[in-house]
Amino acid sequence: MTTVAAYAAPAAKAPLERTTIERREVREHDVLIDIKFAGICHSDIHQAREGWGEAIFPMVPGHEIAGIVEAVGPGVTKFKVGDRVGVGCLVDSCRECENCRAGLEQHCLKGSVGTYNAVGHDGEPTYGGYSQKVVVDEAFTLRIPDGLALDVAAPLLCAGITTYSPLKHWGAAPGKKVAVIGLGGLGHMGVKIAHAMGAEVTVLSQSLRKKDDGLKLGADHYYATSDEKTFQDLAGTFDVILSTVSAPLDFGSYLGLLRTGGALVNVGAPEEPIALNLFSLIGGNKTLAGSMIGGIAETQEMLDFCAEHGIGAEIELIAASEINDAYERVLASDVRYRFVIDTATI
Questions:
Q1: 169: buried, middle or exposed (CB in 10 Å: 19+, 13-18, 0-12)?
Q2: pLDDT band at 273 (very low <50, low <70, confident <90, very high)
Q3: Helix axis angle, 296-309 relative to 159-169, nearest 10°?
Q4: How far apart are CA 186 and CA 233, in angstroms?
Q5: Which of 34, 162, 180, 305 is 20 to 30 A from 263 (CA-CA)?
């Protein structure tokens, strides 16, 4: 076991504090990663504050990890010391079920193992990226292309794949009209990726406060959802709407913005249930869908796509001592657009 410094939540809703954790020794197929940067995802806050249900404490959040390979096990073939690598939301799965064999490890039928707030197949709790080092099986380690700086690549490991996967699945492409609800950590990546896929992109935000940013990021149009006229003017417009917000919405109104056969896809995960009149789905043959990250192969595909198109996250680099303040700022929508921890400060 190796002892490393980390930032952890000692209990639900408690401020994160500096501590030490144990990392396992490098096994046959393991990679030891010297973490350089770790993104702060809204889901870190949900879990550290038990918004999504009972959690495991102490908790070291962080599933947007970028770093350098420091050591490899004797059986490792994919990576060597010095490689630039990333780790996303998953560190293991059964690898044998129908979904795992299809490259859908995030939907492992026996339960995938999260990068933190989970228990590995060895019975030990998993700890995430708010730490100096991590040991991960090579099968769940991603290669970060040379064209991507590590700090702006870190958020791609969650925010990037969370938006890339549904945009690809639901056909964002030239000739398609895509709307992104919310211009935050997920939303700004959705805009960049949908634009790079060739779609006509519209941002639907509560206000026009971030309109200039949205247009710079690749949006063609920007509308305020607080203006009732928006829902009249855009009725029947979009092929795909990607909802990135974690607040419950009036889904009936948003479904009204879809063309016949269109899809409203949720990647934001509100803590509260929603109400829906099913007539808003039945009329127009519409789909209300969800999407959860992506498999390992698709995550690598996303990283390669982002490198090819020069896409990284828009980040604000912070010291580890600023994590608790950053959490409050995320909740206040006061970040443009992803906090990333410089782990040298842990």
A1: middle
A2: confident
A3: 100
A4: 25
A5: 305
Structure confidence by residue, pLDDT tens digits, 1-39 = 899 999 999 999 999 999 999 999 999 999 999 999 999
Closest to 205 measured CA to CA, from 244, 237, 240: 244
Beta bridge partners of 137: 30
Pairing of β 238-243 and β 177-181: parallel
* Number of neighbouring beta carbons within 10 Å of residue 13: 9
Beta bridge partners of 317: 340
Q: Give this prediction's pTM.
A: 0.95
Give yes or no for a contact between 120 and 94, defined as CB atoms under 8 angstroms apart: no
Q: 342 — phi, psi (to 5°)?
A: -80, 105
pLDDT at position 134 is 98
